[in-house]
Design a protein that fits this description.
mainly alpha, 0% strand
Length: 405
């Protein structure tokens, strides 16, 4: 493929292939909304509901949904800017988003750290909430840890998703530039970076007092992000609806369960101990391929299988996610879809809020106990709060204070 001239690389590209129309995909917002509810459950301390989230039944979890859908959303929100305004302004647009996410990360940390410290100082609890998040190092040596926090060389375990997202976003201008050569250049770069990350050459330090690395290595996870990005940009064609692919995806999900889920393995061990012994022999072989930090190959294949089935279930253009009919059931389904979609549309605000709210909901469960009724009430309150945040964020983004023409 012929390369473009240097001038055209950095200028608006009106004469080139037009960017896809900027529209919201109902499948994107719906599944991203589902991920937000799962992420809330997963981060409420000792929430019994977390035993039944998708992460307990396979290699991938809600993190994959969040990253993949973020890649798709970025293709809509930022990808077109590169084609309409050129590489420099497209990079500026991405940089502004990085700036927003960076400060969301900083503010989230300080709010959670403050609330954990306030709980410890209240004298109402025997446990220390600061230590529960391993934040004692921050409070013991705040001067050096603040420097690390702002330079992302100190990334506490609970606060590791947004830093990964920041670095992946920062890679977007590189991949948009490579696409001027051809999609093969993008794919080659992404796969190469991912492969190098698998061998630990691109690890990032998470704290100065140990050898711990970032829990989510952005150089591994970028493969999933840019897969979603490429699908939404049209660089990769949508897969066909095929019975062969459906069966292949379903069987991969089923047969990977005992290797990616300790829960499923214990079930098999209870009913078929001989089979469990054979699975136990293979388990160490799969360890590196299901690695979450560097985004192992099995996690990638597991999520793609899950995403393909979700894509098929949603139907063409997501028409099954649009309720039709006039009955009561259709109205309930429409209301549910509307709420989940709204949460998906405001995923950054919802995610940041849910990470803070989850800790406080956990405190409430510490006080009330974790019986069935208390756990149900706590999760429902959490759901109601993130739904409220989604609608509030959408209201602010609508700029209601501006005069309407």
């Amino acid at each position: 493929m012929a390369t473009a001239s240097p001038a055209s690389d950095f200028a608006p590209v009106a004469s080139q292939t037009a960017a896809p129309v900027r529209t919201r995909d109902p499948r994107l917002d719906f599944y991203r909304g589902i991920a937000m509810f799962i992420i809330l459950i997963a981060h409420i301390p000792n929430d019994p509901w977390a035993k039944w989230i998708p992460a307990r039944f396979g290699f991938s979890d809600a993190t994959e949904i969040f990253v993949f859908c973020s890649g798709m959303a970025s293709a809509i929100a930022f990808g077109g800017a590169f084609l309409r305004k050129g590489w420099w302004l497209g990079t500026a647009r991405v940089s502004f988003r990085i700036w927003q996410v960076y400060w969301a990360h900083i503010c989230l940390f300080f709010f959670v750290a403050m609330t954990m410290a306030a709980l410890d100082q209240s004298g109402l609890f025997e446990k220390t909430y600061v230590s529960s998040l391993n934040l004692q190092h921050f409070f013991n040596d705040p001067a050096s840890q603040i420097v690390g926090l702002f330079t992302l060389t100190y990334v506490p375990n609970y606060f590791d998703i947004l830093p990964m997202y920041l670095v992946v976003l920062a890679m977007m201008p590189l991949f948009m530039g490579l696409h001027r050569i051809g999609f093969w250049a993008v794919a080659l770069a992404s796969v190469t970076i991912w492969l190098v990350a698998q061998y630990g050459y691109l690890d990032l330090p998470a704290e100065p007092w140990s050898d711990r690395q970032w829990f989510f290595n952005p150089f591994g996870w970028q493969l999933l992000f840019f897969t979603g990005f490429a699908f939404m940009r049209g660089w990769i064609p949508a897969p066909p609806v095929s019975k062969t692919l459906i069966w292949a995806a379903a069987l991969f999900l089923i047969f990977s369960m005992p290797f990616g889920s300790w829960k499923v393995f214990t079930w098999i061990n209870a009913v078929a101990p001989d089979l469990a012994d054979e699975i136990r022999k293979v388990w160490p072989v799969t360890k590196e391929f299901r690695n979450k930090t560097d985004f192992g190959l099995f996690r990638y294949l597991h999520f793609l299988s899950l995403a393909y089935l979700g894509w098929v279930i949603a139907g063409e253009q997501g028409h099954r996610l649009i309720a039709t009919g006039q009955g009561a059931a259709a109205k309930v389904w429409q209301s549910l879809l509307t709420v989940i979609t709204k949460v998906g549309q405001q995923s950054l605000a919802v995610f940041v809020f849910s990470m803070a709210a989850a800790r406080l909901i956990g405190v409430g469960l510490d006080l009330s106990g974790r019986d069935v009724a208390s756990v149900f009430a706590a999760n429902m309150i959490g759901f109601a709060m993130i739904i409220g945040v989604a609608y509030l964020a959408a209201w602010f983004k609508s700029h209601p204070w501006k005069s309407k023409k």
